[in-house]
């Protein structure tokens, strides 16, 4: 064996041994009841002067020492506002920025629970979330005050936080809830996913591993931080690893292309949904050469088209697909290897290090190559839903979380999602649950029966189609129904198309036969 080969082999062996030892230590820590889960603690001590956060909208930059000091002041500000902070909910309605980040970190340090609200929702939807989590404090940006009842929210929190006496982090139980992430349920009622300190720590470790995030990483995400991707996979993983987090307040193609092309900023990791990657590549200012410093572009929310994957590989950048959810964080991920990305187009990848996966059908594990429901277990998996004991019980079996998604494990070990047990569809990277939309349609007073399903769409991934049986066909106005939905639902949830039918097909048990509707639609029966 040549010397170079021997050295390469030795390096590979040492890397494998290092990975095994690091993984073993991490798993031992995760099994403990008490250990530090603070996202900033080590990096702030080891690299106090290093840039932790860059906020593109405001131009603000914070070193790790400054960010951890602000987090302590946020904890002090919350304590001064709330008095008793343990377990109290602090809701936030606003775009990504330093204010959101330091409130999330400060809430964790003082024992409160941070609840980031989806600013894309309609006022009645936000009111329902606030009623469910009953926060002691709501902080909102001025832009979104019209979505809230008058006088319900504090504004300008960051200015006050900067002048507040700090409250240093205290040792707190790792199983305490620190975040509630709201996701709509198949019953149409929103559910608050409980994320404990241990959950968030483990979920961040999982993405650090699969995303190859380290102290030299510079991560850019246009994705909102009311989702697990933005708040945990991007922000928390980056800060735990000691990298630099670049925040934007929204997706703007020119700004994102400028940031990705900025050698001084040095972005290495970018997070998006497929629609965003397509928009970047289609823009006149797109420069493939400027992207070559990227380690990868990470996608979620919907499977990327194979043609899109191949196009970016030609640019020299792997589009890396993954599978996760609010209930578990990153669970499965395609390795960051160009050939693996090419071979696994459409797959979601390999299991993350600190999570176990089963594929189950009829209560038993399926054979290799067969389809089964994805069950998950591990330290990143939620203990359940806020104030939803029945739904929590239904979501778990034998200590495993039942995702409701169907997958197949291929011979390569890669997992491929093949269908959904639930009727959920994904539009523009956002989950849409038909039962929720159907309930709003039914409440219009103009519809006797309705069914909603998602169909493929080149731009949004999927869009909603509402099949309705009008109360009075002669006077029924589809535009009026759309307006009714727009006043009560986020735009991405509103049906794009309304189809009038004589009857909604149902089984003997009364269940809507959505495959029948889909087949009739695909056959052009409805025009």
Explain what the structure shows:
The chain has 527 residues and is an alpha/beta fold. Among the domains are: 1-31; 62-172, Rossmann fold; 425-522, GMP Synthetase, Chain A, domain 3, CATH 3.30.300. The chain is built from 16 helices and 25 strands. It has a nine-stranded mixed sheet. Strands 15, 16, 17, 18, 19 and 20 form a six-stranded antiparallel sheet that branches. Strands 4-3-5 form a three-stranded parallel sheet, with helices on both faces. Strand 19 and strand 20 form a beta hairpin. It is globular. 46% of the residues are buried.
The main β sheet shows up as:
9 strands, mixed
Extract low-pLDDT stretches.
1-25
- Principal-axis shape equals globular
**Architecture of one domain in CATH?**
3-Layer(aba) Sandwich
Structural class, by secondary structure, is alpha/beta
Termini separation: 69 Å
The amount of beta strand, in percent, is 15-25%
Strand order in space, largest sheet: 2-1-9-8-10-11-12-13-14
Arithmetic mean of pLDDT: 88
CATH class of one domain: Alpha Beta
Helix content: 25-40%
Count of alpha/pi helices: 16
Give the beta-strand count: 25
| Named CATH topology of one domain | Rossmann fold
Give a topology summary:
Elements (H helix, E strand, L loop, with lengths): L2 H29 L9 H6 L4 E5 L5 E3 H19 L6 E5 L4 H13 L2 E5 L5 H11 L3 E4 L16 H6 L14 E8 L5 E7 H14 L7 E4 L6 H14 L2 E4 L5 H9 L7 E4 L1 H9 L13 E4 L6 H10 L3 E7 L3 E5 L4 H6 L6 E2 L4 E6 L2 E2 L5 E7 L11 H7 E2 L2 E10 L5 E6 L4 E3 L2 E3 L1 H9 L4 E11 L3 E10 L7 H9 L10 E4 L13 H9 L5
Parallel strand pairs: 1-9, 3-4, 3-5, 8-9, 8-10, 10-11, 11-12, 24-25
Antiparallel strand pairs: 1-2, 6-7, 12-13, 13-14, 15-16, 15-17, 17-19, 18-19, 19-20, 21-22, 23-24
Helix pairs in contact: 3-4, 7-8
């Amino acid at each position: 064996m040549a010397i170079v080969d021997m050295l390469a082999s030795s390096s590979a062996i040492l890397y494998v041994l290092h990975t095994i030892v690091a993984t073993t230590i991490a798993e031992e820590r995760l099994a403990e009841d008490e250990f530090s889960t603070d996202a900033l603690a080590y990096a702030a001590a080891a690299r106090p002067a290093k840039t932790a956060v860059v906020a593109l909208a405001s131009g603000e930059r914070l070193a790790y020492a400054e960010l951890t000091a602000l987090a302590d002041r946020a904890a002090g500000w919350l304590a001064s506002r709330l008095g008793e902070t343990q377990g109290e909910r602090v809701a936030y309605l606003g775009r990504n920025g330093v204010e959101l980040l330091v409130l999330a970190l400060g809430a964790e340090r003082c024992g409160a629970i941070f609840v980031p609200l989806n600013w894309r929702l309609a006022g009645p939807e936000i009111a329902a979330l606030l009623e469910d989590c009953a926060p002691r404090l709501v902080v909102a940006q001025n832009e979104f005050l019209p979505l809230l009842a008058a006088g319900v929210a504090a504004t300008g929190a960051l200015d006050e936080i900067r002048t507040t006496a700090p409250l240093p982090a205290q040792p707190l139980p790792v199983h305490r809830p620190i975040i509630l992430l709201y996701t709509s349920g198949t019953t149409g009622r929103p559910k608050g996913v409980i994320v404990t300190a241990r959950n968030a720590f483990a979920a961040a470790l999982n993405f650090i591993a699969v995303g190859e995030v380290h102290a030299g990483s510079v991560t850019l995400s246009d994705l909102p931080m009311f989702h697990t991707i933005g708040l945990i996979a991007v922000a928390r993983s980056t800060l735990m690893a000691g990298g630099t987090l670049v925040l934007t307040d929204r997706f703007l193609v020119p700004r994102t292309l400028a940031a990705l092309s900025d050698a001084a900023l040095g972005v290495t990791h970018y997070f998006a949904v497929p629609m965003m990657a397509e928009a970047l590549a289609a823009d006149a200012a797109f420069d493939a050469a400027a992207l070559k410093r990227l380690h990868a572009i990470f996608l979620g929310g919907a499977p990327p088209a194979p043609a899109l994957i191949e196009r970016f590989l030609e640019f020299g950048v792997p589009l890396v697909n993954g599978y996760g959810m609010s209930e578990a964080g990153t669970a499965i991920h395609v390795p960051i290897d160009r050939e693996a990305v090419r071979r696994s187009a459409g797959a979601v990848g390999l299991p993350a290090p600190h999570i176990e996966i089963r594929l189950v059908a009829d209560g038993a594990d399926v054979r290799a190559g067969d389809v089964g429901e994805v069950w998950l277990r591990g330290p990143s998996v939620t203990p359940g839903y806020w104030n939803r004991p029945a739904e929590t019980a239904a979501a778990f079996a034998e200590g495993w979380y039942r995702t409701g998604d169907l997958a197949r494990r291929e011979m390569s070990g890669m997992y491929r999602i093949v269908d959904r047990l639930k009727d959920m569809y994904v539009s523009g990277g956002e989950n849409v649950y038909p039962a929720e939309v159907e309930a709003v349609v039914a409440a219009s007073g103009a519809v006797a029966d309705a069914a909603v399903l998602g169909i493929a769409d080149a731009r949004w991934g999927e869009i909603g189609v509402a099949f309705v049986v009008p109360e009075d066909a002669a006077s029924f106005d589809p535009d009026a129904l759309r307006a009714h939905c727009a006043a009560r639902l986020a735009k991405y949830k509103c049906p794009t198309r309304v189809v009038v039918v004589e009857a909604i097909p149902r089984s003997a048990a009364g269940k809507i036969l959505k495959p029948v509707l889909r087949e009739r639609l695909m056959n052009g029966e409805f025009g």
